[in-house]
Amino acid sequence: MSALPLAARIARIRAPLSAKLGGAFLVMVAALLATGLVSLFVVSRIQRQVTELAQVDAMVGLARTLDYSIVAQEHFSSMFVLTGEPPYLEKLAAEQERFRANAGRLRAEPRGALLGDALNRTFARYVEASAAVVAAKRAGRDRAAVESHVAREHVIAHEIEALTRDVVSLLQTERRTALDAILRERQFVTAIVGGLAVGSLALAVLLSVLLARSIVQPIREVDAASSASRAASSAR
Fold first, then answer.
1. Which end of the chain is more exposed for a tag (fewer CB within 10 A), N or C?
2. Which residues have C-beta within 8 Å of that of residue 117, sequence separation ≥ 6?
3. Residues 178-204 pLDDT 10s
4. 3-9+17-226 — its CATH code?
5. pTM to 2 decimal places
6. Taking Cα atoms as reference points, which of 157, 159, 160, 161 lies closest to residue 149?
7. How far apart are CA 20 and CA 105, in angstroms?
8. How far from the centroid of its chain's Cα atoms is residue 221's Cα?
9. What is the pLDDT of residues 6-62, one digit of tens each?
10. Backbone angles phi, psi at 116, to 5 degrees
11. Mind giving me the DSSP string for 53-93?
């Protein structure tokens, strides 16, 4: 449908010019409002994904802290077995408490079930093995302390490291997925807002042209009729 017949149809609408202008204005406002609503919806989704990304980052940090903590505990236990010096035992106890606190924080996160009870059970076994090593060393059974440290404590520590590293790997995959989703949403909102903005501008231009022609066309018709009447009168 060309603009001229459409303008003629608008011109034939029995309504004041102010009503036609108001109707065109409302259509443009509706288009702009749709652009704003779509933008708000997509932005809210992006904000939610950013929050989830921050949670994943926090969990990655905690899991890495646990990984570092168990390595530190191994070191302090080894040094106590080698030297028997009490400061290493104190550091070991402090690091174990820090491990428990960080493990509790990790489990409190929305995705804390990734570790579940496996970490608790494994760490409980590690603490028992560590206590056995300390008891043997204090009793003067150095060989038994070394054997228990290597055969039990060291092995269980590696189990905990495997647990935390698996969680870190899984969370890193989730992080990449969430980041990709944010980038896709950003591209989507850019395309939608751009398209709606261009569409709104085109609609505004089209409505302006149609309204202008709908106003001018009746005037031209009256002028043409007047010219024809004058020509007929002159012919007589």
1. C
2. none
3. 888 878 877 877 787 777 777 777 777
4. 1.20.120.1730
5. 0.63
6. 157
7. 63
8. 60
9. 555 555 556 565 565 666 667 777 777 877 787 777 778 778 877 878 888 888 888
10. 60, -145
11. HHHHHHHHHHHHHHHHHHHHHHHHHHHHHHH--HHHHHHHH
Mean pLDDT, all residues of the chain: 78
Encode 109-147: b = buried (16+ Cβ within 10 Å), e = exposed. Answer: bebbebbeeebeebbebbbebbebbbebbeeeeeeebbe
Report the length, in residues, of the chain.
236
Amino acid found at 212: A
Sign of CA dihedral 229, 233, 234, 236: positive
Q: What is the structure's pLDDT at 57?
A: 83
Asked whether residue 115 carries a pLDDT value surpassing 90, the answer given is no
